[in-house]
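Researcher: Quick one. two chains, 773 residues in total.
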Amino acid sequence: MTVMTLIDAIRAAMDEEMARDPRVFITGEDVGVRGGVFRATQGLQAKYGAARVIDSPLAELSIVAIGIGAALAELRPICEIQFADFIHPAFNQIVNEAAKMYYRSNGQWRVPLTIRAPYGGGIAGGLYHSQSVEAFFAHVPGLKIVIPSTPHDAKGLLKSAVRDPNPVLFFEPKKGYRAIKGDVSDDDYTVPIGPARIAREGRDLSVFAYGMMAHYTVIAAEKVARENGIDAEVVDLRTLLPIDKESILKSVKKTGKALIVYEDSRTMGYGAEVAAILADDGFETLDAPIRRLTGYDIPAVPFNHDMQEFFMPNPDKIADAIRELAGY
Amino acid sequence: MTTQVIMPQLGESVVEGTVSRWLKQEGDAIQEFEPLLEISTDKVDTEIPASAGGVLLKIYVQAGQTVERGTLLAVIGAAGEIVGDDSPPVTAQHVPPTHQQPAVNAVPIAYNGQMTPVVARMAAEHQLDLAAINGTGRNGRVTKRDVEDYLERDGIQDDAPTDDTPPWERPGSGDLFKSTVDYEDQPQTETAVTARPTESPLQKSNVDIRVHPVEAIPAGIDGELIPLTAMRRAIANHMVMSKHTSPHVTTVFEIDMSAVLKHREAHKESFAKQGVNLTLTAYFVSAAADALQTVPYLNARWTDDGIYLVNGIHIGVAVALDNGLIVPVIKNVHDLNLLGAARAINDLATRAREKKLKPEEVQGGTFSITNHGVSGSLMAMPIINQPQVGILGIGMMEKRVKVIDDMIAIRPCVYTSLTFDHRVVDGAQGDTFMMTLKRRLEGWV
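Model:
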């Protein structure tokens, strides 16, 4: 056991996978000499050489396209998009090529590709370094989407992503890179892609979240437990695609109430699907309206500090939303 | 050095209040006595001024929350000052049970008929009458937990009816089969065993007694649900409670207003110069004070130990508001002349409509007057404002043909009704009061 930050755990996962499997390589902007702008790949080029940790041009389309080609050739590429905000030029490669390859080739070709991208606000990154992009891709069958909120899960899930025969988008809550710490086993373990994690058991209401919001929600749940005696269950979704319907339904069957927290703008966000699942298959278990706490429907996370704080859900806002729903 | 803002006691029987609105937000600078927040109780809405100047450091009770008197609402201090603990210290605030949220109104209130899917399913499965379950959710909603607790406590799940009678032979739940017995008289049947308040309404006037047998709105009735305001609920509770408390008797007299009108015509202008609008209500208030001195039993209250005659005559005058009514009280009417009474009525009525009454100004009444004639009513039988003994209703003034000394005359007349608590006074005393009132008004000089 070692106490690691989120980014340490991500680096450890890549390190272990590169050591385990010579087909694994990393490419992306500044991943090599500089070790990544967030230092996620620090030391890896020195350890594994420039042929396996490759600095790319500033062209996300080509980073992903090269990754797809390498995956088709049975390598195990890890493509880093420096900020999720810059993934959009690669949208066509991801949606039209990576996601559909296995289906359109009738199972003859597969794309074992991992795309890592830091996402989310709260770091004063402004319009182009704060975006949440998961909802765009969660609409695309053929992709897997993973967002960890603890170092343990980050390491185990990233190792699963590298080994997965499908394209996996691995979005990292960059606000938590160094803010989130936790015990990480030094063993070669994996965390399966798919199941959600009950981060805190409770009986009064269920809160669904992922990434930084899952971390905040646990803090908020402890706060309302201490201050108001409210016993909130926190479900860290951690795999967004495929979605763990069973865990969602099971939790609300117990509690009767659902709050969904995501920092992305509200409309058509990921939480809408969670709400729809509950409305479809959990209707008779509901004891309150399904609530969402989200960012606002404005074009971007604001740069101005106060406005950024206004935009972002935080433990206090989550606690307020929990209290509100618990009292329904 | 910080100053705590505390939920004040807004009257003798008011033990809790709802924060309706914060006029300042956390971090805002505030002057001493500057309006800080608005509080609403079942009696009055009022502004609370800041008890100190500085910065509003922390708000503990958000708008919409109802808390007991003495609860810490907020802290004012110097800019940048640290508020010790993030959580409010333990005060008179309700200590919530684990599954209850503190913002909910702690007074048990009638189930409003709404049910969530899970509650509907459980009610159907266990054939429960939801009206019999005490709702702890928002606005008295019956929550899933309430149903679970109910089932657990009464063990109903285990001995659910194993009735062999075919459904068409059993009493249904439709309107045809509903008991028409008044709620209060209903025997406590097995399914109705709940934690219903059994205290005397007088002892616990803030406890909601069922305003009517509450039923879910049957499907197919198109309409709109208007949520109850605190005032609507308070009026409803009070009216039901009053009718259940006092045997109401009403006596009606007709009063010739000629003398009063003559006097008013002669003095209207001089009153106006002193800033007072001389209304007919002022005459009635003044005359009622005289009549109450003649019949002090109408200026009293019933107690189990005896009839308590109150020193001092404090008359409440009902003022209609857009969404209800309020009864500001003119204190010590017996000490006021007509000018003083008129001035007090003007002032209270104006501030009532502007929602600027202080809590103590709607309390302490010993008798009430309602001027239903302003909306055209000739005669009415008002409901006593508990714990008072009598209420005077004033009808619309109109010219009527009267026979006086065997001659036909046209006189401005008003039907005036006195509703009194027959436990305290009998008809003769009620009529003595009315005769005194009538003589005073008809002989006004």
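The mean pLDDT of chain A is 97.
Researcher: Thanks, that's what I needed.
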